Structures are given as structure tokens and as C-alpha cells.
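Structure first, sequence second, as always.
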């Protein structure tokens, strides 16, 4: 278990809502992205992750995490996503559905290049500050605090710009996901 995770969990068990927000901020996007490996809807993926976080908040006093919270979250998201797919397809052919999703991820280079160009165009079309913040966080892998220092703005302003960029790029999320998993 990461030291940061264990501190967050200790605070969470005491009912600290800031710790919950920290956990949410740390894992929300990676979990949503992971869920998309198994389902074909970003909206469904978000719902699954949000439901998991609601369950964690509601059960925080009774939950015991002896292992890595990250592993638990990713396994729960995978299981919950597959359950939703089973419900959607009435338990018929779920293995075929999941296998088809995996096969569909195998795309040719020309298709990837086209999607990469489209993604870059959409990133470049973002407002200047949102684009800078997005690139710093996603491409340069900076933390919010580091980006705030680099641009001379507050952490909340960084989060605002990053959120705006993600909202505008949400239409291109399938493109982003392709590049995360290739």
C-alpha cells in the first residue's frame, strides 16, 4: 500500500471528507479509463466509478483495507463493469462481447495516425491556459501543485482549467483511451 493511500484511508475511516476527495481525485480518471476497457460508454464508465466511490463513502467505517486500495478499486471497477455489461446483454454471450471489445482494440497504423492527428487538433483547439495545463498534467505528468507553481496560478485554478479541457475533449475520449492502452 502506498504511504499516501494509507494516510488517506486512516483519515477516511474517521469520516474526513477531504481524505475522500483526495482519494477520488487520485483514482477517478484512471478508474474511469480502466472501465472503458470493458464497456463502450464513457458515461457508463463514469457511473460505475461514481457508484463505487459512493459505496466507499457510505461503508467507510466498516471497510477494512489490508491490501492496496488501488488494487481493490481497479478490481471492483472491473467486476462492476462486467456486471453492468451482463445486465445490459441479459447474461448472454458476455465472454463474446468482452472478446469482441478486445479484438476491436487491434487497429491498423493508418487509423491510429488519423486518430492521433484528430486528438492533437482538438488539444490545440483548447483555450490557451486550459491547453497548457492539460499538456502539463497529461503529457508532462505534473501534479496539480507542480503545474500551479509552473504557471504561477493556484491549485484550484489548475483544476478548473484541467476540468474544462477534459470536458471539451470528452467527445474525443475514445481516441485518448486508444493511446493509453497501446
Amino acid at each position: 500500500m502506498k504511504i499516501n493511500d494509507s494516510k488517506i484511508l486512516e483519515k477516511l475511516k474517521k469520516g474526513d471528507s477531504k481524505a475522500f476527495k483526495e482519494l477520488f481525485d487520485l483514482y477517478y480518471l484512471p478508474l474511469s479509463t480502466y472501465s472503458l476497457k470493458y464497456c463502450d460508454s464513457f458515461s457508463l464508465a463514469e457511473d460505475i466509478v461514481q457508484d463505487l466511490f459512493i459505496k466507499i463513502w457510505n461503508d467507510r467505517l466498516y471497510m477494512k483495507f489490508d491490501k492496496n486500495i488501488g488494487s481493490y478499486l481497479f478490481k471492483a471497477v472491473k467486476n462492476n463493469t462486467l456486471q453492468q455489461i451482463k445486465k445490459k446483454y441479459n447474461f448472454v454471450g458476455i465472454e463474446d462481447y468482452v472478446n469482441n471489445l478486445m479484438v476491436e482494440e487491434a487497429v491498423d497504423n493508418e487509423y491510429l495516425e488519423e486518430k492521433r492527428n484528430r486528438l492533437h487538433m482538438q488539444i490545440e483547439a483548447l483555450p490557451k491556459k486550459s491547453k497548457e495545463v492539460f499538456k502539463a498534467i497529461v503529457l508532462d505528468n505534473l501534479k496539480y501543485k507542480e503545474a500551479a507553481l509552473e504557471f504561477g496560478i493556484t491549485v484550484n485554478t489548475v483544476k478548473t482549467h484541467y476540468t474544462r479541457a477534459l470536458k471539451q475533449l470528452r467527445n474525443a475520449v475514445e481516441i485518448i483511451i486508444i493511446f493509453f492502452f497501446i
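Margin note: Residues 103-108, 175-182 have pLDDT under 50 and may be disordered.
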